[in-house]
Structure formats: C-alpha cells, structure tokens
Design goal:
heterodimer; A: alpha+beta; Cytochrome Bc1 Complex, Chain A, domain 1; 2 domains; five-stranded mixed sheet; globular; B: alpha+beta; six-stranded mixed sheet; 18 helices; 15 strands; 39% helix
Chain lengths: 456, 505
C-alpha cells in the first residue's frame, strides 16, 4: 500500500518542534462538457468509496421571505427523482450497505454517499438521477412532508435547545439585513411555511445544474474505470444557466452593539463576536491561532484564568468561524452560579488587550500549531462522511481552485510568528466594532454584561 | 477551525447524527429495479450515450474486509499488547484498557469511576495539571482517560513522530496519577455546575429518568451520569486514589496499539514505559441484577413552553454476550437503527412529527437498556407515542423478506466503515477485550449477520421486546400534552418535576 503522505521528516530546531510534514492527496481532475467538475482520489485502505457532491449554492442565495429554503431543498433531494421512486434513494443505498447525508450552510450544499466499492455505480446512478431528473418526481406533497421535518429540526436544534437562539440573534446583528449571512440557514418558521413547489422548480433550474457542482470520489477505486462510470451517468445531464458569483453588500460594524436575550436556562452565557477576514484571506489563519492561544487547552489564556484560576466560568471557547464572504471571530463563556457576565467580560477584555499589546510566547504559538498539525493528519484518516477526504477535496476546490490544498493550508499556520498573532488581534478584535450578547435566565437581567443598552 | 469545523453557526443537516449502526448481498434489491419506471425522453443528450436509467446498475459481489493481522504480544510483567499495524497515515492510537468501571462504584460513591478517570489527567508523575497539559498539547498529542460501565480506557493519539515523548506521559497518567485535592475541588465545582446545566436539557432529563425507571438508582446502569449534589460533595481524593489502586494492575489490563508502528521497534518503548508496572490482585465485579419493568407507565416531566416533547420508550434489553446478539442487531436496525427503519419512516417521513426517531440496544456485560428515542412537536405527542407502541407491536410479527435482507445488508456490508481511523480500530479492538471475543470475531461478523433468519428475528423480538412492559418518559409542556396522554389510556401517568428527576437546586 502506498503511503498517502509523500514525505515525513522531523527536524529539531532550538528545542522546539519544526516538523516537516508534507501532506499530499494525489488526485485526478477533469470537467465534463456540461461543466461538472470531477475529482478522483484513490485510497485502498478499506474497501469503501465515498461519492461527495457540492453544489455551489447555500442559504446565502435565498430570496427575501424564503429563508431556510436551500436547506429544505436539500431535504427534498432525498425524496426520489425521475427514475428513483420516493423512499428508494435510501432503501437502495442501505440494501447495498451504503449510508448518506447532506448539509447546507450559507455558502454551499453538500451530499455524500459512502458505499462498499462494488456499489459505486449505484451511488453514481442515484446522484446523477437527482442532478438530472429531480423535478420529474417532485410534488407539492413532498414539499409539505419535508417542511414538517425541517420545522421539527428547527425546534430540536434551536428553539428547544438551551442558548439555541443565540447564534441566530448574533448573525442578525453582525450583518446588515441584505447580507447573505444575516439570516440563519435553518430559516424562520414563517418562511418555511411559505416555501412552495414553484420555489423548488425555480431553485433547481437556477442552481442545480452540473456546471454549478463538483463531484469528488475518494476511496477504493480504479481511476480509469471510475472516470468511465462518471461519464456514463453524468454526461447527458444538461448544463444550467451560468451562476454569477454572489454579490454581497459590505459588512462592517461601526460600533459596539450590546444585546440581551432571556432564555430558559440556569446560567448566563456571554457571546462576543467580531467580523473578520474570509476563509483563506490574510488574517484568517492568524485568527485561528489567536483562538487557540485564548481557549485551546488548560494553559490557554482564557481557560486558565476564567475556568482554572478564578473558577468563575464553567467553560470558555474562542474560535474563528471561517466562511467564503467573510468570517466571524467569537468568544463564548458560561458563568458559574453567583457570577455576572460583566465579571467574565472584564477578564476576557484584559486578555484580549494583553494579546494585542504583547506577542504571545513562541511556545504558546507552537503548542497551537502542533495541535493543528495533528488535526490535519487526523483528517487524512477517513475517506467519507462530513469532513472525510472526499468532502475536503471539494471544500478546498471550491475555496481555492485546488482540491489538494492540504499542504498549503497547513503551511499558513506554520509560517506564523508570535508577532503576527498579536497584530491580528490588534487589527481585527476591535473594541468599538463588535457585538456582545448576554443570554440570561428569564428575569435575571442583572446578570447581563449590558451597560444598559438595547434589548432584544 | 477554518472550513472543516462548523461551530455554533454550523450547517443544518438532513439527518441528525445517529449512533453508528452498521450492516449482504445485492441481488435482493436488483429485483426491485424492475418496478422503476423509465422517465422517457426527458432531455436531449449532449453526449453520444444516454445511460439506461430504467434499471439499477448491476453490482458485483461486495468486497470482504481484509484487516491486517491482530498481533498479540506481552511485556515482561505480563501486560498483554494487542497490536494492529496500519501505515497509511503517520499517526498512532494507544489505549490502556483496564477492566472495571462504573459497575464497580461503591454504593455510597456513585460516579467514583468517572471522577477517578477525570482526575487522572489533572496531575501525574512529577507534573501538575498545567504542566502535564502543556507537555501533551505541545506534542500535538491527545491524552484522555474515561470510565465506561465495565472498563477504564486511558487513550493517547499522536503523530507517530512524537510517540517517544508521548508514551511516558501516557504511562504517568495511567499509572501515576496524583489526585491533587485542589484539582478535586475544581472538578467538584464543574460537576455541580454541570448538574445544574443538565436541568436545561430535555434530552438529559429524559435519559436520566428513563434509566432510573428501568434499573432504579441503586443499580450502576440506573445512576444519573450527572450524579446528585450530595454525592458530588462527598468525594475525597482518597476515594479516587483507592479506586485507582484497586484496579490498575497489568494483569487486569491490556494495551491496544493501532497505527504506523512496527512490533519490533514498538515493544522496547512499551517495555520502558509499562514494563516495571507491578501485578496485583484487582477488584472484580459480580453481576448486579435488575428486574424487568413491571407495568407500562408514563412518566411525565413538565417543561412549560417546550415546543417539542422529548420521548423515551423501552425496557431492560439484552447483554452483549447473548447468543442472539447478531439477530438483535439486525432486528434493531429494522426497527430503529437506520434511516429507513420503521420508526424513522413512520414518525419522520410519513408523519413529519419529528426530525428523527430511532432505537438502540445498549449492549453491555449485563443486560443494558433497550431504548426508543425521539423528540416530537408538542401538539402530536400522544399521536407519536401511539405510533411508537404500534411499531413495537408490529416488529414482533414476521418481517417481510426484502426488509430483513435490507437490514442485514446495511449492517454487514458497511462493517468495513468501522475500520477507517486508528481510533475507530482501537475502539473495535477494545470491544474484543471487554467482552472476551475471539480474534476471528471481525472476520466472522458479516457471515453471522447474513445468517440471521426470519424465524430467529421473530423469536428474538418476542423474547426481548414487550410493549406491555415498557417505561415511557415524556419531557414536555405538561399543560398541553397531559390530557391527550391520559386519553391514550395506555397506562398510569405519573407526573414529576425537574427537581424530582435531577435533584433540588
């Protein structure tokens, strides 16, 4: 069996690790005449194949009054197509030992089928049938059925979950109303109710052509044979209209906004959020490391102070949530009984200021980057599912034009110096351009970090 | 980070993440293809060839999983090593498995095994908690210790290039934890806070009450994983130290290693980290029995204003060691262990009551719980419950051949998916050890599943599933659901407060 990582050498420099890990995912890429991009990668470690399809459309493309539609549409993709009766998509896959799922975010929609290698052609048949012939089998009754399912998804994942509405409120306040990231992918109940059969027809014709998709197949495959099968099943699907890039209005915060949300929770939780550079833009990798220095591991600055030493917080997490049009950097911390969010905020502010004013130690940065490096290796271990190699090939392709961007991605982190980290904190984590949300137990407004401002 | 971890702003998924469920031959569904209809001349082909979509592609026979050999080795002190070499990615997983877990919690110290495990990474050898975490994080390694019902597992995951530095840290955590009292005080605060937070989570409340209804709070399987305030306040460092000392012996442990390592170079490293560990007499457990649910009853916990009702239905199921294990796995796949299972098809696809519904057998050394789980829109709580009971009744009837084949295929043919990452494989190997299964188990698995007959399935269903003796837990808006639940007339309705389930605040 060929090692997947071409080269691995460990070099010691001044007692710190400077490991040369070269990540490589060899692949073959070609485009069908209808515009479908195809990416093939061989990995024979287990007799499985993952068929992974990304459509370059997400909830960011939704029309006013139809929030949640891209995700509802994703559900409808499993309800049968021209040559696949309702229910058979799943039944046929399961009978062949396959599993599948899909997900939607503001930028894209992805679908995968993980199958034993002998069932590759079944997966291609099913995936191509819905890409070509979904509407032949679409009915208003199907739309109604999945509408109910998705509404229950909203109840389960947002409404009935502690702090579940916080992320929705944050996005609404970080982005202006006409920005694609303003509304949540799950959508509003009202808009879900309004979605119609006609909307499905329109959305499919507009966005689900092969020219707006990429197909990554990873696993126990033969490249030449797989290429023939892909051509067989996908070549006759007609192109859709060209999809122009999503035009988004500028998003910027000109002030600090403070928000309060009451929830049926025991403990208050503080959310701080900033608008930050898009995925892979300058600053993005730096902010991943900022997040790590602040909250990854017991020695991270915020964990150590809030949870370990002061013991006034139950948890704290900082992260750069990277997206195509722009990212957000967030800090989330839950106060323990008897502590107010203002106390937590004060400590967090101190630590942000300290990081802005003085670069972190080399060891802090390397600790974070070494952890990232392991996660890159870990992501090489599975071919399928969300975050498996097939999914990553598509993700990198869509983001950078290069499916095998693994090494470049990792190199972004390895190139960083401590001073880059404090510069990024200084540039992007501004005190006067952020949203601070306090979620407090109902009736306990005094626990909020408010400075007496607006209330939602 | 970056684009591969979706956090709070994460994507909406089509299906909830399900517990991994696994599962022939393809001929069965090929005959279904005849039923599909050719869509006709829907479009003009751009390419010369239009595939025949009127029939499903002919599939070759499914591949067999070829695992590298499982190597069994021993250190000088008798510590058994189970090694599986896997060289594709330069990482390695090492798990020290020690028999005994929460099943051995002393009667007045429920949760002690979990507490002990959680303290093991809070100071070990000559490093305190922060130093230890710094060393591990700097290596890019992960070390954790967990307690299951019947085994502890102390785990290392690391790039193979850092194995030499990481192994001594793993050995410190496993063999020389210091249980500092200030770390126990931190843990105590964390547990008390977690107990408070669990009150917010309908699924946590439902699970705690369901397990208690089945086993009682004296049985290890019935104890709330969140514990209660008095128990949390009573722990001493000495409790953890003694518990650890009573179980952590090489003759009560196995070291599982999976990854890009070779036996000949690995063994000396393991010998130097674990070879001087002294054998001893480990505490052992005797089976704690529990009697089956006596009568069907509904336990209703009020969560005013809840838009959904969290539902659990079930009874005491079966031990991992029963002869009909493979039959039960298949049966459960059909009832609630796959997307096309009866419960999910009924409650989600046909009725739209929920985002997902399923069932599971908690296979453990002793009979674990059989659980049906779902969360449904408040207005349809009674209807959903009626459908669940209908499915529980129906699964005891003969299963149509095509459905049984699909269930078996699903489990058997996706079996290789459990052997992708080194951690996945280590988990599988741990199962061999905890349940004393033969090394041939993995190679026999597919054959065993495919051998399940309709008669065996029916027999197992009537033996292990009895709709008349289930505990039903509903956590939801009492005012809106209680009258309809009573009107179902399926058993007494016992109303409980969150305080009664989770303890007073």
């Amino acid at each position: 069996m060929k090692p997947l990582l071409g080269l691995l050498a460990v070099v010691w420099i001044g007692g710190a690790f400077a490991q040369e890990t070269k990540l490589q995912v060899p692949h073959t890429r070609f485009t069908l005449t209808n515009g479908l991009t195809v990416i093939l990668h061989e990995d024979h470690s287990v007799p499985l194949v993952s068929v992974n399809t990304w459509y370059n459309v997400g909830s960011g493309r939704e029309k006013p009054g139809r929030t949640g539609f891209a995700h509802l549409f994703e559900h409808l993709m499993f309800e049968g197509s021209g040559n696949v009766p309702e229910g058979k998509f799943d039944e046929w896959l399961e009978a062949a030992g396959g599993s599948n799922n899909g997900s939607t975010n503001p930028d894209r929609t992805n679908y995968w089928e993980d199958v034993p290698r002998n069932a590759l052609e079944l997966a291609l048949f099913l995936e191509s049938d819905r890409m070509g012939f979904l509407l032949d089998a679409m009915t208003p009754a199907k739309v109604d059925g999945q509408r109910d399912v998705v509404k229950n998804e909203r109840r389960q994942s947002y409404e009935n979950r502690p702090y579940g509405m916080a992320s929705i409120l944050l996005s609404a306040n970080l982005y202006p109303p006409d920005h694609p990231y303003h509304w949540p992918t799950i959508g509003s109940m009202e808009d879900l109710s309004a979605a119609s059969y006609e909307d499905v027809v329109d959305f499919f014709k507009r966005y689900y052509g092969p020219n707006n998709a990429s197909l990554a197949i990873a696993g126990d495959i033969d490249i030449a044979k797989t290429k023939r099968l892909v051509e067989k099943w996908f070549s006759d699907i007609p192109s859709g209209p060209p999809v122009p890039p999503l035009a988004a209005p500028a998003a910027h915060l000109a002030e600090e906004k403070r928000l309060l949300l009451e929830d049926r929770v025991q403990l208050p939780r503080l959310y701080m959020a900033w608008l930050t550079p898009a995925a892979f833009a300058p600053g993005d990798a730096e902010l991943d490391v900022v997040a790590g220095v602040l909250s990854s591991g017991k020695n991270s600055r915020l964990y150590k102070r809030l949870v370990y030493e002061l013991q006034i917080a139950q948890d704290v997490d900082a992260f750069q949530s990277s997206s195509r049009l722009g990212s957000t950097f967030r800090i989330v911390a839950t106060a323990r009984t008897g502590h107010k969010l203002a106390e937590l905020e004060a400590v967090i502010q101190e630590e942000i200021d300290r990081l802005k004013n003085e670069p972190p130690t080399l060891r802090e940065v390397q600790r974070v980057v070494n952890q990232f490096e392991t996660s890159f290796l870990s992501r090489m271990e599975r071919i399928g599912g969300f975050g498996g190699k097939a999914d990553q090939l598509n993700a990198y392709y869509l983001a950078t034009g290069n499916p095998d961007y693994f090494n470049e991605d990792l190199s972004r982190y390895k190139a960083l110096d401590p001073v880059d980290i404090s510069n990024a904190a200084q540039t992007f984590l501004k005190d006067n351009a952020r949203v601070i949300l306090s979620v407090v137990p109902t009736g306990k407004e005094e626990l909020a970090a408010m400075a007496g401002k607006e209330r939602k | 980070m970056a684009i591969f971890v979706d956090r709070n702003t994460g994507p909406a998924l089509r299906q909830p993440k399900r517990p991994q469920l696994r599962l022939r031959k393809i001929q069965a569904f090929l005959c279904l293809a005849a039923a599909t209809v050719f869509a006709g001349d829907t479009l003009l082909a751009q390419q010369a060839r239009v595939p025949d979509r009127s029939r499903l592609p002919q599939l070759e026979p499914p591949p067999a999983l070829k695992l590298p050999p499982i190597q069994r080795l021993k250190l000088s002190n008798g510590l058994g090593i189970v090694l599986l070499e896997k060289h594709e990615v330069p990482v390695v997983a090492v798990s020290l498995l020690v028999k005994g877990g929460t099943a051995l919690d002393p009667a007045d110290r429920s949760g002690l095994a979990n507490l002990t495990a959680s303290l093991m990474t809070e100071g070990a050898g000559n490093r305190d908690a922060l130093q230890l975490a710094d060393e591990i994080d700097f290596l890019g390694a992960h070390i954790s210790a967990t307690a299951g019902y019947h085994a502890f597992s102390v785990n290392l995951y690391t790039p193979v290039s850092r194995l030499d530095q990481a192994l001594p840290l793993l050995a410190d955590v496993a063999l020389r934890p210091t249980f500092p009292s200030e770390e126990l005080e931190r843990k105590r605060k964390q547990l008390l806070t977690r107990l408070l937070q669990a009150r917010d989570e309908p699924s946590a409340i439902a699970s705690v009450l369901f397990n208690r209804a089945l086993y009682g709070s004296d049985h290890p399987y019935g104890v709330s994983p969140f514990l209660d305030e008095a128990t949390i306040r009573a722990f001493t460092p000495e409790d953890a130290r003694k518990f650890h000392a009573s179980l952590f012996f090489p003759n009560n442990a196995t070291l599982v290693v999976v990854g890009a390592v070779r036996a000949e170079s690995l063994l000396p490293k393991l010998e130097s980290s674990f070879g001087s560990w002294k054998p001893g007499q480990a505490l052992s457990s005797t089976e704690r029995t529990a009697s089956q649910v006596r009568e069907r009853a509904i336990y209703l916990v009020d969560k005013p204003g809840a838009p959904q009702s969290e539902i659990r239905v079930g009874q005491i199921g079966a031990s991992r060691l029963v002869d009909d294990y493979f039959t039960l796995v298949t049966l459960n796949t059909i009832l609630g262990g796959s997307f096309t299972s009866r419960l999910n098809s009924n409650l989600r696809e046909n009725h739209g009551y929920t985002y997902g519904a399923g069932s599971s057998f908690g296979f453990r050394l002793w009979p674990g719980p059989f659980t049906i789980f779902t969360a449904v829109q408040t207005e349809v709580t009674d209807k959903a419950l009626a459908e669940i009971l209908k499915e529980l009744e129906a699964i005891r009837q003969p299963i149509p051949a095509e459905e049984l084949e699909r269930g078996k295929n699903y489990v058997a043919l996706r079996f290789p998916a459990r052997f992708q990452s080194v951690r996945d494989i280590a988990d599988q190997l741990e199962e061999l050890i905890v349940y004393n299964l033969p090394d041939s188990y993995f190679n026999d698995y597919v054959r065993q599943i495919l051998a399940v007959t309709p008669e065996a399935a029916q027999k197992a269903a009537s033996r292990y599933l009895d709709p008349a003796r289930v505990a039903i837990v509903v956590v939801g808006d009492r005012q809106r659901i209680e009258p309809a639940l009573r009107a179902l007339n399926i058993g007494p309705v016992k109303v409980l407060t969150v305080d009664e389930v989770m303890g007073r605040r």
